[in-house]
Amino acid sequence: MSALRTAPMIALRTMSGLVTLALAASGCGHTDTHQALLRAPTAPTGKTVELYMADQPLPERPFYEIALVQAIGFGDEAHPEDVAKALTDKAAGLGCDAVLRTFIDQGYARAHASGVCVKWLGPGPAAPTPVLPPDRGANPSPPSVRPAPAPRIEPLPSGGPSQGGGR
Question: What's the rounded Cα separation, in Å, for the pair 151 and 137?
């Protein structure tokens, strides 16, 4: 009778082990998002949310703040691109037009982004074109390498008896 009880137990343990293995192999990362509402959110507009970094000048158009938004990426999703996307997705869900004063911090197994979610009050000037570094073309050729000096063979200071050393 005890042999009948152990067979289902072994099958159950095997199944739970396979489920655990499948979950572990599926990826080890996730992103959490949070908000602190300053005003009631509006309906999502469906437009792309603009992202302005903390060191960029603020846009020259009137806006009001809706919320402070935060995204934290763990494991496989601990990259600046992942948390920036999560931040703009969270802002879009709150009906924001842009996230200003964005700060992104990259760690070894965690990335963090935060900013201020805003809604435009009216039209403003067109956004400036992105400034990219100029294309310098192909990499320059490496500098020429001087050959290492050849070693010189010098006599030992304590040569044989004919050279004044030894017995």
Answer: 41
Pairing of β 63-75 and β 50-53: unpaired
Residue listed under structure tokens 């290492």: 148
List, in order, residues 6 or more apart from 122 with CB less than 8 Å away: 61, 62
Residue 63 amino acid letter: F
**Interatomic CA distance for residues 60 and 50, integer angstroms:** 14
pLDDT for the residue numbered 155 = 77
CA dihedral 119, 121, 123, 124 (to 10 degrees): -80
Confidence of residue 21 (pLDDT cuts 50, 70, 90): very low
Confidence label for 123 from pLDDT (cuts 50, 70 and 90) = confident
32-120 CATH fold: Translation Initiation Factor IF3 (3.30.110)
Mean pLDDT calculated for residue range 67-77: 94
Judged on CB neighbours under 10 Å (0-12, 13-18, 19+), 86 is: buried
In the chain, where the domains are located: 32-120
